[in-house]
What does this fold into?
Amino acid sequence: MIKKVFYFFCIFTLAMPSFYNYAKNLENNTLIEFDGSGYRKDIRVYSLAPIDYIKDDPNFMFVSLSDDIKLYDEENKESVFLIPEGKRKNYKKKEYLLTDSYRAKFFSEVGISEDDTVFIYDYDQNYLKSFPINSLKVLAIVNPYKDADDGPFHLSDYMFGFKLDSKGLKDYSYSNLVYIGKENPFVQKPLTPLFWNKIDEKDSPVLDENDDITSLAFDGDLKDLKKVDSYLAQANSFRFFIKNYTIKNESALFHSGEIIARHLIILDSDSNIITNVIDGIMEGDMFYPLNNLNSKDEPIYQWTGKILKNEPPVVFGFKSSSFACTPVFQFMHPLHDYFVPRCDARH
It folds into this structure.
């Protein structure tokens, strides 16, 4: 019998969202509940964001570490004062420079030190750049959703992190990952894009009736799903299978023909199933198009390969989300775990 290992694949924020899970059947297979237990909190990787809305300090890159700071106590009172004390409860500026004791407090809260290094890795271009922390400014800046306001601002309106000179980096890309520490954790080997070919349904893996499928974010009723097509990609001795689903009848939430669910199955070189999940879209989500080898001018979304040293290879790039950090990097091994860059997601 084919060996079964079930992976979790989702768009996940550091504050766990509510996922819709169903103990129902899809093509005679039971969908099992996803609980998000595989999130690797020990892997602290961040996103890099361009800042161009601060009037007196335009066009720089910013690494927000706000996700690592608890600004308020259980009674929702300010408990961490990172903005200079004289400005407390009267935050009118969109940017504050944190120095001396405020800089030290920031370092203490996020668990880093002055002799650490900021490593920035672009996995698309396989490019690495590093900056010693002791050369970087620590800022509190108003988040993009508040940039049009004149103030006053609440403490929670600010992002806290490092300012990086745009001139010291190549063109900004969403494929940048940031790590802060003593040593570079990135493998720095080119990833492999997944190029998909449409296949007949009979060429897809056949699941036994006792092969459970991990159910992820799907806000709807499974009986309304309609399978439309199947695809295959091959890379690094693995075979990746996709089944796309639309909704049978157009609704207020979904349009006819819109892909609202995807079933992903990955087989290793011995044809063992190492991934068997179905993922759906919620508000603000969108499935990326599948890479097509014949569309060379289109961006590449799905990738596989090894990103972090001493960790298994990953697969990623299936879904975007307006309200969550992406992409989700799913490790390709039986431990059901993954990591997500911390991006200070706000809406």
